[in-house]
Fold:
Amino acid sequence: MWDEYTITTYDNPWNPYTHYREWLKEDFRLGYNTPALVANWSLDTDEMSQSMIDWEMKRVNDEILEKFPLLYKKIYKDPAKNK
Structure:
């Protein structure tokens, strides 16, 4: 099992796990639309199992982090792992 995380921008103060609505509103206000970016880069299909979808989301998050390291960062579902 992998350490569940998602991505967020450095300038968004909200945690998408604990305050999703506020995080999403700020993400849109800042002009990023991160959920659409993740969806556009994802290759998931209706035929995929949940574990395959989880793997795909990890792959997409890692790819976005690699492409935009100064804009995006990881944020873990387990708050103890966030720096």
